[in-house]
């Protein structure tokens, strides 16, 4: 290949690890969001509500099996995670409107860190930012934090974490691992 010829692009998928929100949780959060009467931003579809553990970005198809094998080796909490989403925040720099936990469980941060460390040998996760657990309600939100009719108080009970593919605004679960230790 000559220096001016670009290398062929291998097939890839946009991947991330997350704790999914169960259907009753998604429904309650979506109802609360409707009560805000938002007139700005792009609301995240309720079926996409999740708490990201680690965003991987574009991963070559032939690496996905290795990603799953690495995820299977991480130390996991000995029981389901219970996360209270009790803060309503606007991250102006990223234009994100979200729910966050005021006191995230220590095990949540440990799981996110363990995933990042397990994927470093594959050349993935090295660019991970500081872990800030959240559930995104709206993207491209360019206004002030709306007045909330009631304080947020949602509980996520997660008994597994999963690897998801992001494709054209839809998230598809690829694999999952129980939160019952290893």
From TrEMBL:
SUPFAM superfamilies: LigT-like
NCBIfam families named among the record's database cross-references: 2_5_ligase
GO molecular function, one term: 2',3'-cyclic-nucleotide 3'-phosphodiesterase activity
HAMAP family, A to Z: RNA_CPDase
InterPro entries noted in UniProt: Cyclic_Pdiesterase, Phosphoesterase_HXTX, RNA_CPDase
Protein's recorded name: RNA 2',3'-cyclic phosphodiesterase
Pfam family, one: LigT_PEase
Key word Hydrolase present: yes
Ranges of residues in domain Phosphoesterase HXTX: 20-92, 101-168
Motif HXTX 2 per UniProt: ranges: 134-137
E.C. numbers: 3.1.4.58
Family: Belongs to the 2H phosphoesterase superfamily. ThpR family.
PANTHER family, per the entry: RNA 2',3'-CYCLIC PHOSPHODIESTERASE
């Amino acid at each position: 290949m000559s220096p001016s010829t670009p290398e062929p692009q291998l097939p890839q998928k946009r991947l991330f690890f997350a704790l999914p929100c169960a259907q009753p949780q998604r429904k309650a959060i979506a109802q609360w969001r409707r009560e805000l009467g938002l007139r700005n931003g792009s609301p995240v579809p309720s079926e996409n509500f999740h708490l990201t553990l680690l965003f991987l970005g574009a991963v070559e198809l032939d690496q996905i099996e290795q990603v799953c094998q690495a995820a299977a080796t991480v130390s996991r909490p000995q029981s389901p995670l219970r996360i209270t989403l009790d803060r309503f925040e606007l991250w102006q720099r990223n234009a994100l409107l979200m729910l966050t936990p005021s006191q995230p469980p220590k095990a949540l941060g440990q799981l996110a860190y363990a995933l990042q460390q397990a994927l470093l040998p594959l050349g993935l996760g090295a660019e991970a930012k500081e872990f800030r657990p959240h559930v995104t309600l709206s993207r491209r939100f360019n206004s002030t934090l709306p007045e909330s009719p009631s304080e947020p108080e949602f509980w996520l009970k997660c008994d597994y974490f999963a690897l998801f593919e992001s494709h054209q605004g839809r998230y598809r679960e690829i694999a999952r691992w129980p939160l019952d230790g290893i």
